[in-house]
Amino acid sequence: MRIKIFDTTLRDGEQSPGASMSVEEKVEMAQALEDLGVDLIEAGFPVSSPVQMEGVKRVASVIRKATVVALARCVEKDIDAAHEALKNAKNKMIHVFIATSPIHRNYKLRMNKEEILERIRKYVSYAKKYSELVEFSAEDASRTEPPFLMEVVKVAIEAGATTINIPDTVGYAIPDEFGHLIKTLKEGVPGIEKVDLSVHCHNDLGLALANSIAAIKNGATQVEVTLNGIGERAGNCALEELVMTLKVRKDLLDFETGVNTHLIYPTSRLLVHITGLIPSRNKPIIGENVFLHESGIHQDGVLKMRETYEIMKPSDIGRSSETLVMGRHSGKHALKKKLESYGVHLDEEHFQKVMDRFLELADKKKEVYDDDLLSIVSDVLREPLRGYELRYYHVHTGRSILPTATVKLAFQGEEKEAAETGNGPVDAIFRAIDRITGMKTKLEEYVIQAVGSGKNAQGEVKLTLKIDDSLHSGRGVSTDIIEASAIAYINAVNKHLILTEKLLQKDRDTAGGADR
Ligand code: KIV
Ligand code: ZN
Questions:
Q1: pLDDT digit string (tens) for 179-201?
Q2: Among 6, 12, 93, which residue has the most ligand 1 atoms within 8 Å of its CB, making it the best to mutate?
Q3: Helices 76-85 and 113-130 sit at what angle, rounded to 10 degrees?
Q4: Cα 167 to ligand 1 centroid, rounded to whole Å
Q5: Average pLDDT, stretch 270-288?
Q6: 141 to each of 39, 122, 155, 178, how far by Cα in Å?
Q7: Are the C-beta atoms of residues 458 and 451 closer than 8 Å to each other?
Q8: What is the distance in A from the centroid of ligand 1 to the CA of 143?
Q9: Domains and CATH numbers, the chain
């Protein structure tokens, strides 16, 4: 049986703190997801900000095989925005949702059951005027009274929904219970056999994958996932976990997906570079450690017979040991081919920038690795200079010296300079940047690692900054780790500026009426 993969990396995934993507980054990720073989790509929530609207529009204009999905509440202006954003899509779907559980009805929406049903009837039909494919989600379905959920689903189908999605919004369900709920719906709701039955499981108890598997065993035909499992709070069911479980345990789970598993790792790395969100080392399938064997007994076993301790091969997910890309003399064609193996299809302008940066790096470093290249791609795709730009820096440090940093930044054409001391050169440079921006920041996380190997590896800094109660990730790569740190810091500050701009716009848009 073929299961549809509905990827929501660009919508629910983007809701992870620090995961917001620029329009260009979204477009690149969407193309890579399409190459990976997902069936549907949820590209965003167009009414929520002009950047979201633009992101969905751009994704809709380039994706040709997968269906592009836009999210909307059961509200007219949301659905109008989704319709507007999807105008140029070859295959489109509007996804409308409303919460159905008692806690959401009573405290969030302050609506009774009849009012909820009325909204569903009205807005699913409204969305249907714009799009043949309409998905309806009953938010917090797993905490909704099953008899009411059955009524909800029946009404949505009658109003024209072509997919019914049952989210475990807060990751509360237990696999047997969730499987039973899907079976109850499948057996008890008239007309359900005509539509796709989808599930969307969050991972708050670490059960998102188990719940999704229980659902397909009980009749679900679509699973909503994100790459690397990113998403609200503990994230969503991870695409790579679901797809590889179905592949590895085909003996028990006779389901197929359209995903080309050999592209899982490259696509996952692209996402890491774009968002700066590093999966834990032991993250199933894609974590750093999952094909390493530490204990002597395990090493011995693997050497004698790989299957003693490995249930899949690194190559099954397109993971080879560090791949040497090319050197100074590799041509444009080779670079293009390498990028395409990661699902990256750049336009001429971006490609030329990547080529120039690659040559610059190849001059500094003897060997350029795949991860070096992905870093360059994500740098080039980053929001084009909206915010601060590093113009100059100098640090003075050493033993028994008070570390001092001088920084010059440009902001909207104006240059500003500041000097500060700190506990170390990185602290000093961060303080100098704060002095220029005037922002109150708290460094929540700072990770430095080598990209590639050997003494000439580049330093990659990923950090998370808290500014005004929101978290922003930043990433910087350089052969100089102080510069990489400064770039990462400025990157996070710029994300904050973009978000503030978005919020201001949202305030302007929603001024004049609450709608839920
Ligand atoms: O988790 C959830 O309930 C959602 C819905 C909008 C589908 O993300
Ligand atoms: Zn969700």
A1: 999 999 999 999 999 999 999 99
A2: 12
A3: 30
A4: 6
A5: 90
A6: 23, 19, 15, 10
A7: yes
A8: 13
A9: 4-275 (3.20.20.70), 291-322 (no CATH), 332-381 (no CATH), 389-503 (3.30.160.270)
